[in-house]
Specification:
Shape: globular
Strand order of the largest sheet: 1-2-4-3
Number of strands: 4
Radius of gyration: 15 Å
Largest sheet: 4 strands, mixed
Structural class: alpha/beta
Length: 150
């Protein structure tokens, strides 16, 4: 099940569309029956979590908190219980995303969709710490976005 909480009220977010996109992405990555939490919040909250968990005292577009933090890219989650059917949680700041979207030549909605794929890839063990990691993660993201119908 996909759980979405929207605690900001300044930017209109199509929650139904976001949930549909998330469900479709989970099907594409072959985890259709796994839980995913998405919190839509403010820059201030994103900054607080970014500072606490990543030691970066600034707002950001998306943060990922995997339920299975030792999962390697391309690995499969083998749930041992119903509770293990969880990918993790994402925190998204539409304020940051809206400011950043023009840099990529996309709308807020398009950028949120791209970041949703990005965040879910992080939950699946992908990262971009090194150039080699980035190439692997970018390839996976592009595969998903193509199937999603960018």
């Amino acid at each position: 099940m996909i759980h979405i909480k929207n605690t900001q009220r300044s930017i209109t977010i199509d929650i139904k569309k976001l949930k549909q996109d998330a469900q479709q992405i989970l099907k594409i990555v072959d985890y259709p029956d796994f839980d995913l939490g998405i919190w839509i919040t403010t820059d201030a909250t994103a900054r607080k979590y970014n500072k606490h968990f990543r030691s970066k005292d600034k707002a950001t577009d998306i943060l990922s908190f995997p339920f299975h933090p030792t999962l390697k890219p391309g690995g499969r989650i083998k749930p041992m219980s119903v509770d293990d059917r969880n990918l993790g949680d994402l925190i998204m700041s539409p304020f940051y995303i809206q400011k950043d979207a023009p840099r990529y030549g996309v709308t807020l909605e398009q950028r949120m969709r791209i970041l949703l794929v990005h965040g879910i890839c992080h939950l699946l063990g992908y990262d971009h710490v090194t150039d080699a990691d980035y190439k692997v993660m970018d390839k996976k993201e592009q595969e998903i976005l193509k199937k999603l119908g960018k």
